[in-house]
Design goal:
The complex is a heterodimer of chains A (634) and B (101). Chain A has 634 residues and is mainly α. Among the domains of chain A are: 333-553, no CATH class; 558-633, no CATH class. Helix content of chain A is 74%, strand content 3%. Chain A contains 26 helices and 2 strands. Chain A has a two-stranded antiparallel ribbon with strand order 1-2. Chain A is globular and about 115 Å long. The relative contact order of chain A is 0.08. Chain B has 101 residues and is mainly alpha-helical. Chain B has one domain: Helix Hairpins (Orthogonal Bundle). Chain B contains 3 helices and no strands. In chain B, helix 1 packs antiparallel against helix 2 and helix 2 runs antiparallel to helix 3 (58-86). The longest helix of chain B is centred in the last third of the chain and has 29 residues, at 58-86. The chains are: A mainly alpha (634), B mainly alpha (101). Chains A and B meet through helix 26 of A and helix 1 of B.
């Protein structure tokens, strides 16, 4: 089992190395096949790990394996160590499975791009980083994976480096994530100092004994971890990078939003839930941040006009649900939603990618309309994704989101608040999801749609349509692995690693879905009235409340605020330091030193006459001088 | 008993000085090479003289080594001169100053 876990981890890395070494020897398409194939190997290995683990006793499913000691400092020894347990396997399956589908899709999507090999190598690197993150057996290896995920997302977001907006978006993602990484590192330092070890076995085993509940240390450690998780998972207030990350090619957006990266924060909290439970206040903070994100992102998604940005904000909002779940202690519920979200969000992005592909890179939904007739299969796929996103049964989102709500109701203090937020979020989700669907696909085709689509009834190559089909199937059936009041496969599977802190009663499991479903249906109907047919309601609302509309369109002014408070003062400081310190003190003095050395050299070079006999004379004269000195001194 | 060490050394110094002056004042590379050989052999003479003085053969060994090196040097030097004359360059060491700084 351990062997297959190692194979699952390193297969994508081998793929990256192959593509990098083969260079021009393989075509771009072959590079894509290598990347997708290596991820498929990884998925197969994950599946076999899962199958073997099923045979184990539920209490004995955690396995550590160390390849070698990576670094040792005093008594602190850190190995290249993986932990294979139900949680890790769960994430491995999601990451490698959805990753494989996305990489396959990318082969078709990136057809014709000039730098396809680099792209496919980055994608495989991304999958490898994420697998390293979820399989890490100690916090330092987890941090390595964490950092590499940040790096690969940076590389992929600014993949189209000719576009300055893409480069800026890549930098933004990297910098915002660096804030979270710094917080994460601080808590790792604290843990190393407090416990003298970083591997999960020791940390979780001794944390309860040596760190006091709610002590300052416990709170700082949990806050640091939360900071990292918030940045990586794009929760308020460190969420601003995610919408900009849409500058990357669409499969990148799918990879970042569905299978990897943004789910890392949720995973981190579940993985280190022992440390979070030592600081319950921080856990509550996580839940509330998730709640705030549900509302803010859901509201902003209502007015966005870029097809990918709408989906990006919906991702933030859905991750908000996961944060609320794990913050409440409903770890399995959070992971379940993570999985179903991976399926339907990847599906939505891929369908959106097909639309963008078909319209020659047009992303503005105001210019699309009535695409249903020209892209019937894409429309159906998008519809199923939207239904799942809006939590309409029997699609996956219905089951996972309502488990979260049921758990919220069972939690005493902040639970009801989050339950209410979750219900409002359900309404918002249905509104923005169906707004997107109706605007893009219904009504009469727009000009641009007619111009691009009339000639051929061709929605995309097979490598794009097959993954979409697979995800449609998964979105349709994945919810049934956990049915409220019926069976709880995910809960049972994750029980040994992260048991939920509360158990919702039967009426909560019935009441939550009913309430959420009613609101989702209401949202759908409203969306139909506003955007499904000709309606002046949105325009009227905009003119009646211009300030509210402006706030939403400016995304609650987060970017502007960070610009004013952080970015611009820092830039001004940098310019000041350059003008008044670096240029006069360092640059000019360096130049003068170099100049004087060069001048000295030029003077001495005149001695180099090139005349052989003058050299010989110098030699003889020097010898005579030395001889004279010797004789005189004696 | 032949002449003492002093006589050998005086002859050696005279030969060496002749060679040095030759290297310094002559411009024909062939003569410069000849003068160099003269200097080397002056040193050889001094070495042999010292060997005789001390009654052992260390100096002989040194002299033999110098001869081998001198032969090698003559090969390279003469080869250069042949190459120069083949390219119809003037045989004048003062003309060869392209390595000036």
């Amino acid at each position: 089992m351990i062997a297959s876990a190692w194979i699952a981890l390193f297969a994508p890395a081998v793929g990256v190395a192959l593509i990098a070494l083969a260079r021009d020897a393989i075509s771009r398409q072959q590079a894509g096949i290598i990347a997708a194939g290596s991820t498929f190997v990884s998925f197969t290995a994950s599946l076999s790990t899962f199958a073997i683990m099923l045979g184990d006793d539920p209490e004995e499913r955690s396995h550590f394996s160390t390849l070698y000691t990576w670094l040792s400092a005093g008594s602190l020894e850190i190995g290249l160590q993986i932990l294979v347990d139900p949680l890790a396997v769960f994430m491995m399956l999601v990451v490698s499975g959805v990753g494989f589908l996305i990489l396959t899709y990318a082969i078709g999507y990136m057809h014709g791009d000039d730098e396809g090999r680099r792209y496919h190598a980055y994608k495989a690197l991304f999958v490898f980083s994420m697998l390293l993150l979820v399989q890490a057996g100690n916090l330092l290896i987890l941090l390595v994976g964490w950092g590499m995920v940040g790096l690969s997302s940076y590389l992929l977001i600014n993949y189209w480096h000719q576009r300055s907006s893409a480069v800026a978006a890549g930098k933004k993602a990297f910098i915002v994530n660096a804030f979270g990484d710094a917080a994460f590192v601080i808590s790792i330092f604290l843990l190393a100092q407090q416990l003298g070890a970083l591997d999960f076995l020791t940390v979780f085993g001794t944390a309860l004994g040596s760190i006091k509940l709610s002590s300052t240390v416990a709170v700082v450690i949990a806050l640091g971890l939360l900071g990292g998780a918030v940045a990586k998972s794009a929760q308020v207030p460190l969420h601003t990078w995610l919408p900009d990350a849409m500058e990357g090619p669409t499969p990148v957006s799918a990879l970042i939003h569905a299978a990897t990266m943004v789910t890392a924060g949720v995973y981190l909290i579940v993985r280190t839930h022992v440390l979070f439970e030592l600081a319950p206040a921080v856990l509550d903070t996580a839940a509330l941040l998730g709640g705030v994100t549900i509302l803010i992102a859901g509201a902003v998604a209502l007015v966005q006009t870029d097809i990918k940005r709408v989906i990006a904000y919906s991702t933030m909002s859905q991750i908000g649900y996961m944060f609320a779940a794990v913050g409440l202690g409903a770890f399995a519920a959070g992971m379940f939603h993570l999985m179903t979200h991976a399926f339907f969000k990847a599906l939505l992005f891929m369908a959106a990618g097909t639309v963008i592909h078909a319209l020659a890179n047009e992303q503005d939904i105001r210019k699309m309309r009535g695409l249903a007739r020209e892209l019937p299969w894409t429309y159906r796929a998008f519809l199923i994704g939207t239904l799942a996103l809006a939590a309409i049964p029997p699609f996956a989102g219905f089951f996972s989101k309502d488990v979260i709500l049921a758990h919220a109701l069972a939690e005493g203090l902040i639970g009801p608040i989050l339950w209410a937020i979750g219900l409002v979020g359900a309404l918002l989700t249905a509104l923005y999801a169906f707004r997107l669907l109706f605007i893009v696909f219904t009504a009469e085709p727009s000009q641009i749609a007619r111009r691009h689509l009339h000639r051929e009834r061709f929605e995309g190559p097979l490598s794009m349509m097959l993954p979409i089909g697979a995800l449609v199937a998964l979105t349709a059936v994945a919810g049934f692995i956990q049915v409220p009041g019926g069976w709880h496969a995910v809960d049972t599977w994750l029980e040994p690693v992260a048991a939920s802190l509360q158990k919702p009663s039967a009426w909560m499991e019935i009441a939550s879905p009913v309430a959420a479903l009613a609101l989702a249906a209401l949202g759908t109907v409203l969306a139909w009235r506003f955007w499904g047919r000709e309606s002046d309601v949105p325009a009227k609302a905009r003119s009646a409340y211009p300030r509210a509309a402006g706030t939403l369109e400016q995304k609650f002014y987060f970017d502007e605020a960070y610009d004013a408070v952080l970015a611009r003062p820092t830039q001004r400081l940098a310019v000041f330091l350059k003008r008044s310190i670096e240029e006069p003190l360092i640059l000019s003095s360096l130049g003068e030193i170099a100049g004087s050395v060069r001048e000295l050299g030029q003077r001495f070079s005149r001695l180099q006459t090139g005349l052989l006999r003058s050299y010989a004379l110098a030699l003889a004269a020097g010898l005579a001088l030395i001889a004279a000195v010797f004789i005189a001194v004696r | 008993m032949g002449p003492g060490i002093g006589a050998y050394l005086v002859l050696s110094v005279l030969l060496f000085a002749t060679g040095t002056v030759g290297v310094l004042i002559r411009r024909n590379p062939l003569i410069v090479l000849l003068s160099l050989e003269l200097m080397l052999n002056a040193a050889n003479l001094a070495l042999i003289g010292f060997a005789r003085q001390h009654g052992n053969s260390d100096g002989h060994i040194f002299a033999l080594t110098v001869m081998v090196v001198a032969a090698a040097e003559a090969v390279v030097g003469l080869g250069l001169i042949v190459a120069m004359s083949r390219r119809k360059l003037k045989l004048d060491v003062d003309q060869m100053k392209q390595l000036r700084g």
